[in-house]
UniProtKB/TrEMBL annotation:
Family: Belongs to the PPR family. PCMP-H subfamily.
Protein name: DYW domain-containing protein
PPR repeats: 93-127, 298-332
Swiss-Prot/TrEMBL GO biological process terms: RNA modification
Top-level taxon of origin: Eukaryota
Entry keyword set: Repeat
Species assigned in the record: Mikania micrantha (bitter vine)
Pfam families, sorted: DYW_deaminase, E_motif, PPR, PPR_2
Repeat is among the record's keywords: yes
Organism phylogeny: Eukaryota, Viridiplantae, Streptophyta, Embryophyta, Tracheophyta
Occurrences of domain DYW (ranges): 513-605
GO molecular function, one term: zinc ion binding
Length: 605
């Protein structure tokens, strides 16, 4: 799951190969096979192997085949011991080779599986439909595209390209290796009547692996429209991942309802996927309900919850969940600690964050990654320690990326450290001179300091390089339709209903004591012009639209592509109190929950 976005290993159904030497089976052989099925561990298995030798059944191909498959494919099995059994077989056939290949793939040992495959060809034993699903599965898990493509060639060479299990495995392999075009090619070449549920699972998972979330949902809708397949858990986890990344809460809720109606119980993977979806779509109440009802939690569940609570601004609660995780005996990994450090950053817990960073390395022996250093930079920057953050970046054991420098530059803007901001902007431009963002932030800092000549010079440099500022926008969904607003939006300028609502809001805000923060308008214009521009910020337009088009007392959800300005933040707090509405705003960095004139961030963001 960014760190916590949800991904899973697709478990494709495998074709079941049975040993063909079943004619004339003796009662002794039948009895041995029945006893073999009762083995619970490798010690019991070795005792049974001794019995086979005592009874003189080591030359029974049926007993030997079952002995090999049990040892190679059981969860408690041993490939080393299976290899000894295999070496004793006089003239192994495709069944024994396929069994050994499956065993090596189970242990993620693709190299040994390939050596065995080559030995199979050297002995002129032809691979079949049972050979390729296993070996392609290994290529998929280990992202071995080159070998996977070679096996695709062999699929045609040995005439098994029309087998549905082989086709599904090819779709899955290409998807896991990031070659979605090839996955789609195999899918499109299949006869529509040959496609089964595993086929749809594979193609949807392939698009999920490539983060093509809209396409995932389109394929899911195509699957469900056929009314002949009932989506299984693996498909629905991919759909939930798509809803998570697109912020499609309504479809996520529908998928949750489908799961409840069609499955007798949800496993921990599905429940954690639901948890992740609700957290990232802004529905904290639903996420907490799922967490409370989960009978089984794993490290991933805790990691998702810690990161989610931090992203919503509930850092103290996130640290409480982390403590619970440790009490339950789960060992934190690097992803969990990214969530923990983010929680400290979002809540302003500087000393606690630094202490956690030390514990991560000293107690849990986790080597800090650039993400951990990024959290520290953010933590120190928000606390106003921008110079210390700069020194930290300079002394890191790895090269800083642009994310770290942007975090520091934004902090320089907030804390008005112009001198350091100029240095950081230069670092960013050295990394990538063709991005407008450092120029925009630096220009805003100059404007805040009323250095209008520097503003003009910075914008001129942008223009000379042909760089354009990305416009800020806010999105609101009403009755399953998405509406987008930009600041001073001319598309909505002539909408009387919206203008009337904005006027009503301004009148009531003024009555309650709200005063616009005109320092947020970074233009050399008079105060009236500044107030006018502030009143038409995209978030305010979206809120007005939401008040008009949603039921009284209902929740308003807004997504914006940039960090919220101080005036919009203060404005939204007043609106939540005056109109008695809960308003959730997701900006570039986090969620803000506004209710009764307060925000979950406690004015620290």
């Amino acid at each position: 799951m960014a760190g916590t976005s949800v991904h899973h290993n697709l478990l494709l159904p495998q074709p079941q190969e049975h040993h063909h030497h079943t004619k004339g089976i003796t009662s002794r052989e039948q009895q041995c096979i029945s006893l073999l099925k009762n083995c619970k561990n490798i010690q019991e298995f070795k005792q049974f192997h001794c019995l086979i030798l005592k009874l003189g059944l080591e030359y029974s191909s049926l007993c030997t085949g079952n002995l090999l498959s049990t040892c190679a494919l059981s969860s408690w099995g041993s490939m080393d011991y299976a290899c000894l059994i295999f070496q004793q077989i006089d003239g192994p056939d495709s069944f024994e080779f396929n069994t050994m290949i499956r065993g090596y793939i189970k242990d993620m040992n693709l190299d040994e599986a390939i050596l065995l495959y080559n030995q199979m060809l050297e002995m002129e034993i032809q691979p079949n439909i049972f050979t390729y699903p296993s070996i392609l599965k290994g290529c998929a898990y280990l992202h071995r595209l080159e070998e996977g493509m070679q096996f695709h060639g062999h699929v045609f060479k040995y005439g098994v390209e029309d087998d549905v299990y082989v086709q599904n495995s090819l779709i899955n392999m290409y998807g896991k290796c990031g070659k979605i075009t090839q996955s789609c090619f195999v899918f499109e070449k299949m006869d529509e009547f040959d496609r089964n549920l595993a086929t749809w699972s594979s193609i949807i998972a392939a698009h999920a692996s490539d983060q093509m979330w809209s396409e995932c949902l389109s394929l899911f809708q195509e699957l469900t429209s056929q009314n002949c397949w009932r989506a299984e858990e693996s498909v629905l986890v991919s759909v939930l991942s798509s809803c998570t990344n697109l912020g499609a809460l309504d479809l996520g809720r529908s998928t949750h309802g489908f799961l409840i109606r069609n499955l007798s119980g949800l496993n921990v993977i599905v429940e954690t996927s639901l948890l992740d979806m609700y957290l990232k779509c802004g529905s904290l109440v639903n996420a907490l309900t799922i967490l409370k009802r989960m009978k089984v939690k794993n490290q991933w569940s805790y990691s998702v919850m810690i990161s989610g609570l931090a992203f919503h601004g509930y850092g103290t609660e996130a640290l409480r969940v982390f403590s619970e995780m440790l009490e339950k005996g789960f060992e934190p990994d690097e992803v969990v600690y990214v969530g923990v450090l983010t929680a400290c950053s979002q809540t302003g817990l500087l000393e606690k964050g630094l202490d956690f960073f030390k514990k991560m390395t000293a107690d849990h022996k986790i080597k800090p990654t650039i993400q951990h250093y990024g959290c520290l930079v953010d933590l120190m920057s928000k606390a106003g320690k921008v110079k210390e953050a700069f020194d930290l970046i300079d002394n890191m054991p790895m090269e800083a990326n642009d994310a770290l420098w942007y975090s520091l530059l934004d902090a320089c803007r907030v804390h008005q450290d112009l001198e350091l901001g100029e240095q950081v902007a230069e670092k960013l431009l050295n990394l990538n001179s063709q991005t407008p963002n450092p120029y925009v932030i630096l220009s805003n800092m100059y404007a805040k300091a009323k250095k209008w000549e520097n503003v003009a010079l910075t914008r001129r440099k942008m223009g000379q390089k042909g760089l354009m500022k990305t416009p800020g926008f806010s999105i609101i969904q009403v009755k399953r339709k998405v509406y987008k607003f930009v600041s001073n939006d001319i598309m909505w300028a002539h909408c009387k209903e919206l203008s009337d609502m904005l006027y009503q809001m301004e009148w009531q805000l003024k009555f309650e004591g709200y005063s616009p923060d005109t320092s947020e308008v970074l233009l050399d214009v008079d105060e009236d012009e500044k107030r006018e521009r502030l009143s038409r910020h995209s978030q305010k337009l979206a809120i007005a639209f939401g008040l008009i088009n949603t039921a009284q007392g209902s929740l308003i959800r807004i997504v914006r592509n940039m960090r919220m300005c101080k005036d919009c933040h203060n404005y939204t707090k007043y609106i939540s109190f005056i109109f008695e509405r809960r308003i959730i705003v997701r900006d570039r960095n986090r969620f803000h929950h506004f209710e009764d004139g307060n925000c979950s961030c406690k004015d620290y963001w």
